[in-house]
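queue> holo job accepted (flavin-adenine dinucleotide)
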Amino acid sequence: MIIKDSYDVVVVGAGPAGATAANYAAKKGVSVLLIDRKKDIGVPLQCGGFLPGFSVLEELVPNAELPYTLKEFPANCINATTSYQRFIAPDGYSKGFEVTGYALDRKRFDKYLVHEAASSDAHVLIGTSVTSVDGKVLKCEGVFGNFSVNAKVIVGADGPSSFIGRNAGLVLEHDPMDIATALEYELMGVNIDEPSVEMYFGKDYVPGGYAWIIPQGNNSANIGIGIRRPMCKKGMSYRDYLNHFMEKHPIASKKLKGSTIVSVIGGLVPVGGAPSRTVSGNVILAGDAAGHLIATNGGGISTAMLGGKIAGETAAEFVQNKIPLNEYEIRWRQQMGIEIKTAVYTRKLMDNLMKSDTMVSAAFKMISSEHMKAIQCGKLPNTVRSNLLKLNKGM
Ligand SMILES: Cc1cc2nc3c(=O)[nH]c(=O)nc-3n(C[C@H](O)[C@H](O)[C@H](O)COP(=O)(O)OP(=O)(O)OC[C@H]3O[C@@H](n4cnc5c(N)ncnc54)[C@H](O)[C@@H]3O)c2cc1C
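queue> job finished
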């Protein structure tokens, strides 16, 4: 493999954001290097793999030009297709809406995205960590040796703990309420309503968050919890909560009884929104590194890819002297800024209610299925907003 000494654009992180950034930058004809510390792209898996269908994504971010890779991925990247999303309140009351979605095989999907970038002429370097950045120089260490590489633009697509973002002074220490820990089991032998994605609420099982069941086909499913430490009981670990949900939840436990855990997955989910700036000097951030995620459901695959597309295109146009790099800030905020901000606002309104199961169950009864779908799409209809504010006042 021949790696050059310098590139127009170096992308750090080959997850959905970075691979998409590299693809779109390379398509514009600039030289691109995509680096990831993983020796095997997509492994270890750190995702439930749920991706709403393309038309739902168009509703989620109506002002966006979505990457083609959110629509045109190979069929073998899909483990299962879902057609319904169900929400289960702490008192067992449930409602939902019809919606097409996919349970992705993220390992295959991430590899597909990286291959698309390589097909557009991006160079790809796996098994390599970026260990320091000084101006245009990135120091790299890994299975192909230790070396430095120069970049006109650096795209930090290095996930929720972004080293590139911290090094550039863009990402500060997260408030513990703005970062959720997600823990997940892949289960075989479940007894579930196959085409439905389910979200369960209740402070004894998932304080300040929710648990999910995402069917993966052939009686298998990903089940997981996304919770925040300040809302957990002292002495309860994340694993305690997930096991408690799996074994004791009155509805979920029946579906999961007798199943076998075949994989444990974990990671961080940034639910605090974007930092005030995502561009500094020659560095831009995309994906989880830039808080490109919908805080009400923790979904970040599609928004990371959109952020990556905008980052790649803007970096290339900057190198070609067409625009200032700061244009990135304007572009991504125009395309998905409102949805990301609204979801954080809604999440904060729910945070207080989530201290009381009675309040959450009451909120579920007040919010129509249609409005639940809107909330999932980063919207907050006025009636829902005023009902949530009223419930908050009553706390
Ligand atoms: C358990 C869990 C379940 C989830 N379930 C869903 C879901 O069902 N649907 C959904 O839409 N979202 C889900 N998410 C969120 C989703 O996975 C992320 O939003 C998405 O992966 C973000 O993509 P990204 O490219 O920004 O970051 P990542 O996918 O985290 O990719 C970052 C990459 O950067 C690399 N990297 C980091 N530092 C360096 C370095 N110094 N040098 C080189 N490489 C580096 C990492 O190896 C990694 O490959 C889930 C998250 C978790 C933790």
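queue> The radius of gyration is 21 Å.
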